[in-house]
Specification:
Blueprint lengths: L4 H15 L3 E9 L2 E8 L2 E8 L6 E5 L11 H10 L3 E8 L4 E9 L5 E9 L6 E6 L4 E4 L58 E2 L10 H9 L5 H8 L5 H10 L13 H20 L5 E5 L2 E6 L10 E4 L3 H21 L1 H27 L3 H14 L9 E6 L4 E6 L6 H45 L3 H13 L19 E4 L5 E4 L3 H11 L5 E5 L7 E3 L8 H13 L9 E7 L20 E5 L7 E2 L2
Parallel strand pairs: 5-10
Antiparallel strand pairs: 1-2, 2-3, 3-4, 5-6, 6-7, 7-8, 8-9, 11-12, 11-13, 14-15, 16-17, 16-22, 17-19, 18-19, 18-20, 20-21
Helix pairs in contact: 4-5, 8-10, 9-10
């Protein structure tokens, strides 16, 4: 999800309502491109994180304190000199730009009241934190941008600060009539207004409202998809919010914008205007969209284009940002740490799939073996009628009662031709017998590798990877280093509780699957697994009770989610009492057999199932 202008508006609103009138108590610079301000206001203490990191620029309130370097950087020392104990008199956003401006009031060395501005630009790799005086003259910035780096704007001490107009975009707030009711600019005597409804800085260009005619012109001049035309025409809109506008307006987001009919244009215009009205009035509803347990999007306004995904709403956008990026970082970190293991498994999987395909092609070739056997028998039976130098013969196939033509080698006798076909039959028969065993072995190896890949997909902690690596070592895919002992296993299965109070356990890998099924579960406990798909074993402890239907469904959803079929709308799940599940002698970890079972098709939505940490 992009850190777009609407998200910035939500953050500005929260900061305005929380920090306006507060005083800066501490200033720290934990990273080279990050500030952490501690602000006291209304009897409380708040920490404001300002990050200009090129890969992940952020602004939000946090409860987490970060350690600072022993020697504060120069930019931090400068801010401490000017802004220590400064009062926040205004927090605003220019239009719907990805910029937050904090206007600050402080006393200088002579005791005179002065105004300064701390401007945070959230613009991807161009993000910056800029410190200006009341006349918008740059005092310093956390990143210095010279003319050699940017031909559009220099960010250096002594230069004038301005917002670069690098894109020909319109301010969508101008569609909202309320936006024309901008209050007077703050003067030296204007007190802080914690309850003020407005948090936007309006330029002279914004004085003229945009109309439906303007909107039609902006759309029809864009020969591209509607959602692209929206975010390329108006500031503050990310691609996902542009798609949301199309979804709410019931317009195909991928159709050409210049082909829109009047009805579709009016619907889009009304939806965009309504959305901007929510922004201006501060009617935000910050939320995170989940696919299973993994966060996939966040937004400050409701996202309705994900009707099949679960939504978690939060009280503040700061909480959303903290939760979203913390959860995403866990997923990203584990995937980075599992890269080497994934590469090993993927390479082995591709090699075995290629081997299996070749074997199956050879197996198809062996289907001719019975035909060659019949040819040899018929030549032996009717060979006395073959004329010298004949290249074929016709004979009645007494197995099918049909006449067939048998190719012959005219340099060989009938007996030699018959023996030639019997030799071909024998060779193909031996190949078939060997392949019948080999294909089963390779197929089992493919299924085993797919189950390991599924375990890597659901790994949530480094401890989970340790057990998977141990399985790869014992399976011969990784060589154990000399003198290295077997790794200590601390990973435990997932633990859930059904709505009816029954405990459900999910194996994270093949070793845990075996442990759960054959050591932890008792005979009358129930066992669940995705049908013919790599996935986890799910055990439901019955404690001698009958399971309600709802618990069966929730356990099946767990089996569906923790399988290779989780992306499907429905997954077929086999379930059976544990006493009917067997493990063949010498079978690979996680492999079981069962012969009588129940089945159900169910979705993989587990968001309403309570997990025990």
């Amino acid at each position: 999800m992009a850190f777009d202008g609407i998200t910035i508006a939500n953050i500005t609103s929260q900061l305005h309502n929380t920090l306006l009138g507060g005083r800066i108590y501490k200033i720290a610079q934990p990273e080279s491109d990050e500030l952490l301000l501690t602000i006291k206001n209304n009897g409380g203490q708040y920490r404001l994180l300002l990050s200009a990191d090129a890969s992940l620029p952020l602004v939000y309130l946090t409860e987490t304190n970060k350690p600072s370097p022993m020697t504060a950087p120069g930019f931090c020392m400068l801010l401490r000199k000017h802004l220590q104990n400064a009062r926040i008199i205004r927090i605003a956003q220019p239009g719907l730009e990805r910029i937050i401006c904090l206007e600050l009031e402080h006393l200088n060395e002579l005791g005179d009241l002065c105004r300064k501005k701390l401007i945070v630009e959230i613009m991807g790799k161009h993000s910056n934190i800029i410190f200006c005086d009341s006349q918008d003259k740059i005092i310093d910035s956390i990143k210095h941008i010279s003319g050699l780096v940017s031909s559009v704007r220099e960010v250096l001490p002594g230069k004038d600060y301005f917002i670069p107009q690098t894109q020909n975009k319109w301010n969508p707030l101008r569609f909202c009539v309320q936006y024309g009711d901008m209050p007077a600019e703050l003067t030296e005597d204007t007190p802080a207004q914690p309850d003020a409804p407005f948090r936007f800085i309006k330029s002279e260009e914004d004085s003229t409202p945009l109309t439906y005619v303007n909107f039609c012109g902006h759309m029809r001049e864009k020969p591209m998809a509607v959602y692209k035309a929206l975010y390329s025409s108006y500031t503050g809109l990310s691609p996902i919010m542009a798609q949301e506008i199309c979804y709410r307006a019931d317009v195909d987001a991928d159709m050409p914008a210049n082909a829109l009919e009047d009805g579709a244009l009016r619907s889009l215009h009304a939806t965009l205007t309504d959305m901007m009205g929510q922004v201006v009035s501060g009617s935000f509803s910050p939320s995170i969209i989940y696919e299973g347990r993994e966060p996939i999007e966040y937004a400050s306004l409701p996202l309705t284009l994900y009707p099949d995904k679960s939504v978690q709403t939060y009280d503040s956008v700061s909480e959303v940002l903290a939760q979203y990026y913390a959860q995403r970082s866990v997923v990203t970190r584990i995937r980075q740490k599992s890269v080497d293991l994934r590469k090993i498994v993927q390479t082995a999987l591709e090699r075995n799939v290629k081997k299996y395909d070749l074997q199956m092609k050879q197996m198809q070739d062996t289907e001719k073996k019975d035909k060659y056997k019949v040819y040899g028998e018929l030549i032996n039976t009717y060979g006395y009628n073959i004329e010298p130098d004949a290249k074929s013969m016709e004979a009645l196939n007494y197995y099918t009662n049909e006449m067939i033509t048998i190719p012959l080698d005219n340099t060989l006798t009938p007996k030699e031709n018959a023996q030639k076909y019997f030799d071909k039959y024998g060779k193909l028969k031996r190949t078939y017998e060997a392949l019948s065993e080999l294909t089963v072995q390779v197929k089992e190896e493919i299924e085993h590798l797919e189950s390991i890949m599924a375990a890597l997909d659901i790994a949530m902690m480094e401890e989970d990877l340790v057990q998977i690596k141990e399985e790869l070592i014992e399976s011969g895919y990784i060589r154990r280093k000399g003198g290295t002992k077997k790794a200590k296993i601390t990973s435990k299965p997932f633990h859930y509780v059904s709505s009816d109070g029954f405990h459900m356990y999910v194996g994270k890998n093949n070793y845990q699957n075996d442990e759960l099924t054959f050591k932890f579960a008792t005979g009358n406990d129930w066992w669940f697994h995705a049908k013919k798909k790599a996935g986890s074993h799910v055990i439901v402890k019955t404690e001698g009770q009958e399971l309600p239907d709802r618990t069966f469904e929730e356990a099946a959803r767990l089996a569906a989610y923790y399988s290779k079929g989780r992306e499907q709308n429905k997954v077929e799940i086999d379930y059976i009492q544990k006493k009917h599940v067997k493990k063949p002698a010498g079978a690979k970890p996680g492999f079981v057999v069962y012969y009588t079972n129940y089945s159900m098709a169910i979705d993989s939505d587990i968001t309403k199932i309570r997990q025990v940490t």
